[in-house]
TrEMBL record:
Residues 104-140 are annotated as: Disordered. One of its GO terms (molecular function) is ribosome binding. It comes from Frateuria aurantia (strain ATCC 33424 / DSM 6220 / KCTC 2777 / LMG 1558 / NBRC 3245 / NCIMB 13370) (Acetobacter aurantius). It comes from the Bacteria. Residues 128-140 have a biased composition (Basic residues). This is Protein chain release factor B.
């Protein structure tokens, strides 16, 4: 059971783990053991996630999310399988916790009068600089 919050838990049956050979340090041992972990979690078909949370996870522009709505996390940071499994699960929890709180609504504001004046003054100054680059006597 993977605990996301007090009310949200993901059962082991919804997580699919696959073990692969990892690259990196480890000598010949790395060629023999499957220490990297690929964790898959089907966001679309998961009964554990509330609808609003599922929508926010799917709306995230995340490269780990497939077209079918499956979140794929690869963990190969450590040399042993157990630590990589734990790392993948921690990252899944972190991703889901990031979208637990709905994003704050943006309140539209207007530019202040001073900022408008500064912007226009800057544009005029820039125009004068460009005007000064021409041949003398042409634009006078």
């Amino acid at each position: 059971m993977l605990t996301i919050s007090r009310s949200i838990h993901i059962p082991e049956s919804e997580l699919v783990e696959r073990f692969l050979r990892a690259d990196g340090p480890g000598g010949q041992h790395v060629n023999r053991t499957e220490s990297a972990v690929e964790l898959r979690f089907d966001v679309i078909n998961s009964p554990s996630l509330p609808e609003a949370l599922r929508t926010r996870v799917l709306e995230r522009a995340d490269r780990r999310l497939t077209g079918e709505g499956v979140l794929v996390i690869q963990a190969r940071r450590f040399r042993d399988q157990a630590r990589n499994r734990e790392d993948a699960r921690d990252r899944l929890v972190e991703i889901i916790r990031e979208v637990l709180q709905p994003p704050a609504r943006r309140i539209a504001t207007k530019p202040t009068r001073g900022s408008k004046e500064r912007r226009l003054a800057g544009k005029q100054q820039r125009g004068q600089i460009k005007k000064g680059r021409g041949r003398p006597g042409l634009h006078d």
